[in-house]
Design goal:
The protein is of the alpha+beta class and 753 residues long. It has 16 helices and 41 strands.
């Protein structure tokens, strides 16, 4: 039998691994019936299982092997795969709603329903992981659909309908890892592979309460030897599951103590009173004894009452703190007399509505064996076989980073699923960003994210893969954590708000100025690297004083200053496209400084070196329109005459004066001062060589140079625009007008289209 062989006629092997016995069933589905081909029952030779939990894996494995060999002989077919069901003292359930958008309206196929159910199981698992506070690992061992929805409306069967959205309410059940591991290990040691795993109450209710009865509020109790498994139906669906760690074995132990016999003899006495009023046995002394059914019931009275009471209380808890309409009881442990009556009493329902169900629920089960067992003991193993056709949810094993892990198989497992089960940190799967840069820009908090690191390196069976690569049983997965990116770095000139410039109109042309940047109250160059917590402010204006300084003019040399034809002072703000008019004082004309000018001069003295480096750097070709006025000698000392006297007349005039005065002494003071200035040796500055548009240019006459100085040495016509703006580059990147130049720099200046 193959796991995918769900067609009619393929054998399905179901194994009910119970606390007292193992029941094997082989059969196949034929239309709306299930045909049982063979049965095999074998009791454990020792108490290898307690309360549904395997304690002796070897012993249980040997019993499974014996049952399997007996069935193989009956069907004459090699049985390699088996369907099993789990029980346990700790059962947890999660109710979940899941939606699936089909994008465009389409006809719903079986694979769409399967995918919807898988989404629900995954979502339930995520919720359970978040809510599970214990260190014990749990696995989903089964689920049932409470309701399906099509475009928001309830629908009992979605297949072949057209819809844009389908939804489902599901109940997923979870058991501890050790319960599941023990089952898998025992089956594997017996030479079998698990084809499907479900929960015992899910398997039992599939047969015991057919769909036609699920409109009623009915409870099912599957009373085994170690556990009592409970299911609730209502409104056409299974709405709850539960489990109690109290069942038939506690009654057997009572009988053993009362009769002084071993556990197996006590079990025979318990079964004997089902059909006999008196049972004969030998006690531990080897003496033959007899006990009546009434005496046995008296011996188990306390535990039988407690077992029925706990079952009734659990049913009410699962049913919203209220009773149900009827109760079906299956399993060998529930056949003891008075059990059903006691459950009915505690639920407050008529005793006729609580009954053991066996052959009554097997109307659609056909038995090929002549002496086939058709009682309540067979409900769960046949239900396990039927569940195979409803859902396939076994586990697979893979090796993740050197550790072997078990994963619930939803038929579309990927490496990311293994990473989750393997407790690999989610953040180590994806690229991690470097530290962010946080600062204020013009009063608003600004965050620049760090760069991304590298994604996790994922290998599957030695080959490169990614987290979405599909995995299969026994795959070997290796995941190397992702890396952290670089911390965010940002210079002022890279701010989008810094882009653009200011143009100031002056009589002889335009001046183009970059924006000014202040960091923590201090002016900074555009190359300043912003730090965490900085307060950056960008100015879209210059003061008159700053512009004069850039133009190498002094405030005291100005006679009149107009901004947009309005009289202005040193602090007047000049914005983009403003007009600045200047009238320079006549040579020698001076006025006393106003109090404001004196104050500004004091501020200038206190300006930081950083401020000076920025402000002194703003020059352009148009600055030459404002040469500093040179003092010229005044000729007022000479009287005006219609005819200029000849040299001889001057000489005669001079000779009549005091001959002790030299000719130089008679020159005007202004001329003498100028001559003295010219006689002083000129300061020598180094020469700078740069390339402008591929042409070698020599810059001289200043101690250092900034980008705009190039316009004094390189001819570039700014008066006839050939584009939208002038583009300036330095060494291949965008340049700032105030950038300091170095020997060998390569500059590019051109009109931008």
């Amino acid at each position: 039998m193959q796991k995918t062989d769900k067609k009619s006629g393929a054998y399905v092997y179901g194994l009910d691994i119970g606390t007292r016995s193992i029941v094997g069933t082989v059969g196949y589905r034929q239309k709306d019936k299930f045909v049982v081909v063979a049965q095999q029952i074998k009791e454990h030779e020792s108490r290898a299982m307690l309360d549904g939990q395997i304690h002796d894996i070897d012993a249980v494995s040997n019993t499974i092997r014996e049952v399997t060999e007996g069935l193989r002989e009956q069907v004459d077919t090699p049985l390699t795969q088996v369907c099993i069901a789990a029980a346990g003292r700790v059962l947890k359930t999660v109710n979940v709603h899941v939606d699936m958008d089909l994008e465009n309206e389409k006809t719903i196929a079986d694979e769409d329903i399967h995918m919807l159910n898988s989404y629900g199981i995954e979502k339930a698992y995520e919720i359970f992981q978040q809510e599970n506070e214990s260190d014990v690992k749990f696995y989903c061992v089964g689920y049932s659909v409470v309701h399906y929805y099509m475009n928001g409306y309830p629908m009992s069967n979605l297949e072949n309908h057209k819809a844009k959205e389908i939804s489902a309410d599901l109940i997923a059940t979870f058991l501890p890892d050790d319960v599941v591991d023990g089952l898998y290990k025992s089956v594997e040691m017996a030479g079998l592979e698990v084809a499907n795993l479900t929960l015992e109450p899910i398997a039992a209710i599939g047969l015991a309460i057919p769909d036609m009865y699920r409109m009623l509020n009915i409870a099912l109790i599957d009373v085994g030897a170690g556990t009592s498994d409970i299911s609730i139906t209502k409104d056409g669906s299974i709405v709850a599951y539960g489990m109690l760690p109290m069942a038939g074995d506690c009654l057997t132990e009572d009988i053993a103590r009362h009769c002084l016999v071993d556990f197996n003899t006590a079990e025979q006495i318990k079964r004997g009173i089902e059909t006999n009023e008196e049972v004969e046995y030998k006690d531990i002394m080897g003496l033959t004894q007899k006990i009546t059914a009434k005496e046995v019931l008296d011996a188990v009275e306390a535990d039988l009452e407690e077992m029925a009471k706990q079952a009734a209380e659990k049913i009410k808890e699962l049913n919203g703190d209220k009773s149900v309409s009827a109760v079906f009881v299956v399993g060998g442990g529930g056949k003891i007399a008075t059990y059903t009556d006691r459950v009915a009493k505690h639920l407050g329902i008529p005793k006729e509505r609580c009954a053991v169900r066996g052959e009554e629920v097997m109307a659609k089960i056909e038995f090929m064996q002549q002496n086939a067992v058709k009682n309540s003991l067979m409900v769960t193993p046949i239900g396990i076989c039927l569940n195979y056709y409803e859902q396939s949810n076994n586990f697979i094993f893979v090796t993740f980073n050197g550790k072997r892990i078990k994963i619930y198989d939803n038929n579309r497992l990927a490496i990311v699923d293994a990473a989750i089960i393997g407790e690999f940190p989610n953040e180590d799967l994806f690229p991690k960003r470097g530290e962010s840069l946080e600062f204020e820009l013009n009063g608003k908090p600004t965050v620049i994210r760090g760069s991304k690191g590298e994604s996790a390196t994922v290998m599957l069976n030695g080959s490169q893969a990614d987290i979405h690569t599909v995995i299969r049983s026994n795959d070997v997965i290796q995941v190397i954590p992702s890396t952290v990116g670089e911390k965010a770095v940002l210079e002022v000139y890279k701010l989008p708000e810094y882009e653009g410039s200011l143009t100031v109109h002056v009589p002889d042309g335009d001046i183009t100025l970059p924006k000014l940047a202040s960091v923590n109250g201090q002016l900074q160059a555009s190359s300043y690297s912003i730090q965490d917590g900085d307060k950056v402010e960008l100015f879209n204006y210059y003061t008159v004083e700053q512009i004069l300084e850039i133009m190498d003019l002094k405030p005291e040399e100005m006679q009149v200053i107009l901004v947009n034809n309005q009289e202005a002072d040193m602090e007047t703000k000049v914005y983009d496209n403003f007009t600045l008019s200047l009238e320079i004082r006549e040579p020698g004309q001076r006025t006393e400084k106003s109090s404001d000018e004196s104050h500004n001069e004091e501020l200038d003295k206190g300006r930081t070196a950083a401020d000076e480096s920025v402000l002194n750097a703003h020059e352009s070709e148009s600055y030459e329109s404002y040469p500093r006025p040179e003092e010229e000698p005044s000729y007022e000392a000479y009287p005006e005459s219609e005819e200029e006297p000849s040299y001889e007349e001057y000489e005669e005039e001079f000779s009549e004066e005091d001959e002790s005065e030299s000719e130089e002494d008679l020159l005007p003071e202004a001329v003498k001062a100028e001559d003295a200035k010219e006689e002083q040796p000129k300061e020598e500055f180094p020469t700078l060589h740069v390339y402008v548009n591929g042409q070698l240019i020599e810059l001289s006459g200043k101690p250092d140079y900034i980008y705009v100085d190039v316009f004094q040495f390189y001819e570039f016509d700014l008066t006839k625009p050939q584009g939208t703006a002038v583009e300036t580059l330095i060494n291949g990147r965008k340049a700032q007008y105030t950038e300091k130049l170095a020997n060998g720099d390569r500059l590019e200046i051109f009109w931008k289209e």
